[in-house]
Write a structure and sequence with these properties.
alpha/beta; Rossmann fold; 5 helices; 10 strands; globular
């Protein structure tokens, strides 16, 4: 059996008196993808933040790369994360943004790496434009490039296809498939099931509980 990259054990999270995650049990192995399907406020983003070590569970454990997510330390560098916040600098160009992150992570050949990923997401014609001039879809493409340029071992992607046109969806889908093919694990959130062209475990998250996806349960469970 492949090693688990992510494993949660009775993971729960409460904000004040409001439970957001309830007893989550999830396992994602190397070279595997899991899709987490749920509406706004269902706890999808909260789970990703816990796995990235950006938030702590109220109870239970999140184990990432064999370490408790509370103590990931330098292992965070092995995670590529996409959230609803792009983490891009609006006054910098596309190239300058990726060059900055490449320097931050100590990556070699920064200029060539930035060019590679800008081309990969289809922004070659806008390489020197400031991000503040980008459309929402262009910003999403660049945020995907930022998350993937370190060749992470775990991708945490919160609605990666949001605001993308068909070309953007195709490009980002191909990048996700390539990452998984090289052994990366991925957890991808969505409002509805997605066809990524890969085998992926699908889960519903409803009222903070994660459970296997079944087509005949979508209506009953409010998806």
């Amino acid at each position: 059996m492949a090693r688990p990259v992510v494993e949660t054990r009775a993971l729960s999270k409460t904000f004040g008196i409001t439970p957001v995650l309830r007893g989550v049990e999830l396992r994602i192995e190397e070279g595997r993808a899991a899709m987490l399907i749920g509406g706004n406020g269902s706890g999808k983003s909260t789970l990703l933040r816990i796995l990235a070590g950006l938030s702590e569970p109220t109870s239970g454990d999140a184990i990432v790369f064999g370490e408790n997510s509370r103590d990931l330390g330098d292992a965070r560098r092995r995670i590529g994360m996409l959230t609803h916040q792009s983490w891009l600098y609006p006054n910098l160009s596309a190239r300058e943004n990726l060059d900055f992150y490449a320097e931050l992570y100590g990556l070699p050949h920064r200029d060539a790496l930035a060019t590679k990923w800008i081309e990969a997401v289809g922004l070659g014609a806008s390489v020197n434009e400031r991000v503040r001039e980008f459309s929402r879809g262009m910003e999403q493409r660049l945020a995907v490039a930022r998350a993937m340029m370190t060749a992470p071992d775990l991708l945490l992607l919160d609605e990666p296809f949001a605001a993308l046109d068909p070309d953007g969806v195709a490009r980002v889908g191909e990048l996700i498939r390539a990452a998984i093919a090289r052994g990366c694990a991925a957890l991808i959130t969505a409002h509805a099931p997605l066809d990524l062209g890969i085998e992926a475990d699908r889960y519903f998250i409803v009222n903070g509980r994660v459970m296997p996806y079944r087509d005949d349960e979508r209506t009953r469970m409010g998806a």
